[in-house]
Amino acid sequence: MSAVRRIEQLAPQPKKAEWLDTIIKGDCVAALERLPEKSVDVIFADPPYNLQLDGTLHRPDQSRVDAVDDAWDQFDSFAAYDAFTRAWMLAARRVLKPNGTIWVIGSYHNIFRVGSVMQDLGYWLLNDIVWRKTNPMPNFRGRRFQNAHETMIWASRDKASKSYTFNYEALKAANDDLQMRSDWLFPLCTGKERLKNEDGGKLHPTQKPEALLARIMMASTKPGDVVLDPFFGSGTTGAVAKRLGRHFVGIDREETYIAAAAERIAAVEPLDDIDLALMQGKRAEPRVAFGSLIEAGLMKPGTLLFDAKRRWTANVRADGTIAIGDDAGSIHRVGARVQGLEACNGWTFWHFEEAGSLKPIDELRATVRKGMQVAAA
Amino acid sequence: MSAVRRIEQLAPQPKKAEWLDTIIKGDCVAALERLPEKSVDVIFADPPYNLQLDGTLHRPDQSRVDAVDDAWDQFDSFAAYDAFTRAWMLAARRVLKPNGTIWVIGSYHNIFRVGSVMQDLGYWLLNDIVWRKTNPMPNFRGRRFQNAHETMIWASRDKASKSYTFNYEALKAANDDLQMRSDWLFPLCTGKERLKNEDGGKLHPTQKPEALLARIMMASTKPGDVVLDPFFGSGTTGAVAKRLGRHFVGIDREETYIAAAAERIAAVEPLDDIDLALMQGKRAEPRVAFGSLIEAGLMKPGTLLFDAKRRWTANVRADGTIAIGDDAGSIHRVGARVQGLEACNGWTFWHFEEAGSLKPIDELRATVRKGMQVAAA
DNA sequence: CCGCAAGCTGAATCGTTAA
DNA sequence: ATTAACGATTCAGCTTGCG
Lengths: 377, 377
Prior knowledge:
DNA-binding, 2 domains, homodimer, DNA-binding (chains A, B), Rossmann fold, alpha/beta, 377 residues, Methyltransferase (chains A, B), globular, nine-stranded mixed beta sheet
């Protein structure tokens, strides 16, 4: 029996425990209407993009591009797509808690329809977030700009809801004391993270990277929150939610996807509460945040940092902050505080021990930057 | 006398249309309706989005909206903004040439309305472009992500128009030989570039940086093209157009802005023609038939052609075809057939031997083209 | 075992001209 | 209006296979 329970037949008003951390099979509007109202903290939705592709596209080497031509992405008109969007958005709004927020991802093919419908239904837009792709597909015919990003809309249930969750300080501390911007840089979901089908091809045509969902949840949820995904697909939302100590609810129509997602989520190991202190994803180049040393594996949580004269000792945490006892913050803030100064460059102030001698953590940053340059070359 | 002419005080000019390189004062819809249809190559529009349009906002039933009414009706407001957007977009579409394109810039407050209306009116979206700001305004309350970008929509007049201008090769060359992406990085318009009023404050609230307009025009116009800006404001579009050897037409309602923009544009020094040269790709070069190489004596019947790895050998025939045994046809068809592909560019696939090494026959085509240029000069 | 080359692929609204 | 032919066009990153 899979560790992820499934519900195919919901009772009219199921108890909370029944649908939490499950994947519901069926049409998303019908499934949403069976869930209790005001029961979900955050919704992440990756709806069909309504791509309108005519022929087949070939690369310059004449290989064929494997496009998204699934039936679920086909709509007869903009009006039909709008009606579909209104229906699921309305149903989603009912299950959202008054102070809940919703994330919707899309491309220029659909995101303008989506945003307009959201505004019409009373959702209050908080930000649009740009996912900049490090490795987007090129424009093979040289007819347009390389479509190198997707857009996410982050919105509250209505204009009046002001107490939505936004972990501003945590995001900022892990981002070198700069507030998190609306443009995020992440690679596509490829390699081992990408689920494969029995033929070795991609299981799902549009699987999203876990790093993207991780930043979303770290920004807009708290541990124990409920995250709903009405277009569950390969289950990235569930996998990240479980790893980060959040509950999930997935809805999907395809048994193939449900089975694969359930297996995937069952294999996820939740992080310890301590590790959850707050960890962040990659940030915009070329600035290197201290947190990225941890992400890159160059620095492990729990590592001790010292100033050059070993007068102070700090502890590295998983979220990219450091702490001396209860005093936690960015490498810069903690460095400034212990010295009683306004400011401090943590990169040169803090050192790590290697073979008995101290080396500034700036050396590790240099390593990361070199890697970024190589990647960009 | 200002170097920028105004529509009220025009002297008759022999060839150039009266409205070229002028600023038209008035409501943008009315002004657009007085311009000849299909007369403009590119439109750049930075429409207002604050819903406080004092008089220009009308409901679909033509009733006027009181934008400062305390009884705020969200739906009415969006509907009114949509109606305003439809009105100017429709008028703009009439003056756009069949192969013209339009750029519209906005933020998450209005861009979703704008994009939806564009799709509804038949504009065909080519890209959405993200302007990432190097120095955006912080989020002061710490309740959202720093809004660090704006979105531009680039669209053609309709789906059928395929011959819009896109200077792909030039952009790529300027971008370290990588195709230009949909995310652009520019600073805000500040410092000396920013127009000031008599109090020393900013003249216009949303003056766009010239670098942004320069990339737009370098991407989607050719020298001598006509660029229309229906919300001219501080005149950035006109200033950049003049500098880059493009014509402009501006529309604005405010005399203050018109006067400042006229003065600004008058001070602009156009670049020399030689600096305005556009890098052209092969698709802009005259077509050369393979047979003309034989006629020009650059290739003799009986010459052997090879692919780069010498897996196949073909024989040049006097009629401009090539043959492998009995299999004869154009350089493209034979190249495709031996590879088992649908298509093949014979110019780059086939090579001839010179001094023991292989050179693509494309080199001979370049020679012919060079001769054609000399003959035309 | 490593190092390097070659191959594959990702939410894509992806052509023009002459007969 | 339709068809056929011409011929232009890709970036990053991971995987596979060979020496």
